[in-house]
Request: fold
Amino acid sequence: MAFAKTMKLAALGILVVAGGLGVWSYSTDTNGVSSAEAANMVVYKSPTCGCCTAWIEHIEDSGITVDVRDTYDLEPIKAQMGVPGQMESCHTAMIDGYVIEGHVPASDVKRLLQEKPEARGLAVPGMPIGSPGMEQGDIKDPYAVVLFGEKGYQIYSRHN
Reply:
């Protein structure tokens, strides 16, 4: 099972590199389960980042299964996945062929998976106070979730 998961991720990495700024996806995993049924998220983060851990808990609380990959060097991962510099945050995730960069709310991730737009993924640039994992009591900065990809950028949702 671990070998199959490793091979699946290696194949996904090859697709990421070959895919340019387009969307890449797979139709089945090694067990024949459709991608809609197997929408598990892989999250790359620093092992010492508390806000990343809080965001992962938010994602798991929404019903999405998360596989955490701790690393001290996220830049090669962000580059391989095609995350534009202005979209970067503290962690990078993959789910069903999409990149999720930063503190994107689970509701937006689920909407993305349902709508399946032609894009690389979603990002919350920076680390806005009040976004999932960045809660600071009643303090909430307004922020936007950005859909990004080959066609550029567009606001996917706004949160206040």
Notes: Confidence is low (pLDDT under 50) at residues 1-38. Residues 147 and 153 are 6 Å apart (CA to CA). Helices lie at 2-18, 50-61, 75-80, 106-115.
